[in-house]
Amino acid sequence: MQKSEFIAKIKKLAKTVYAQKSNPDADPKDIEVSKFPVIDQFPPLKKVMEDLFDFQYEPFIKDIEWVAPRPTTFRIKLVNEADFYLIYQGKNGTDKGLFIAQVSGKKYFLESLPEEQQASEAIARLLRFDYANVGKAAGDLEGGDLGGDLGGDLGGDLGGEVETEPAVPDSVEDL
Predict the structure, then answer these.
(1) What is the number of other CB atoms lying within 10 angstroms of the CB of residue 121?
(2) What is the model's pLDDT at position 161?
(3) Cβ-based burial of 15 (10 A; exposed 0-12, middle 13-18, buried ≥19)
(4) Which residues are CB-neighbours of 78 under 8 A, at least 6 positions away?
(5) What are phi and psi for residue 171, nearest 5 degrees?
(6) Which of 25, 82, 137, 150 is deepest in the core (most CB within 10 A)?
């Protein structure tokens, strides 16, 4: 067992013990500790996540953060360090939460099935790319170096002499 797995188990046990202490009448087997506590606090979010990820969102999500109170905005961090936003817009007549998904700068209104499918495809594209390994290699663009010796002459040698403008006289006496 690795250190990170051990820490995760301890955190899960601590949450379970805390839940048992706060509600001693509950059966310990019935106490379920979610990987994402924000979903427990905001139930419409779970439905949207299940719609976008087809009930399999936990392996693909690293964290869910509540980033703004109004409009209620959640940052969904994916396992490859990419992220997208879900913005809560209230409830419609059927008590279903209305959300807007903002993926790569484009907004998808999730009350419409075609746009929900487009949002799912955009999230799938984010998951296909490995954002964690994107970055500058060591030594790239350090100190203003753009990959070549551009220090002095930018034009190169054109084979002829450089023309200079004649000096403009300051007064008539200099003529």
Answers:
(1) 12
(2) 57
(3) middle
(4) 60, 61, 62, 84, 123, 126, 127
(5) -145, 175
(6) 82
Question: What DSSP state is assigned to residue 86?
Answer: E
| Bridge partner residues of 76 (DSSP) | 64, 84
* Average pLDDT of every residue of the chain: 74
- Residue 150 pLDDT level (bands cut at 50, 70, 90): very low
pTM score above 0.70: no
Radius of gyration of the chain (CA): 29
Structure tokens, 136: 């500058």
Measured distance CA(45)–CA(50) in Å, rounded: 9
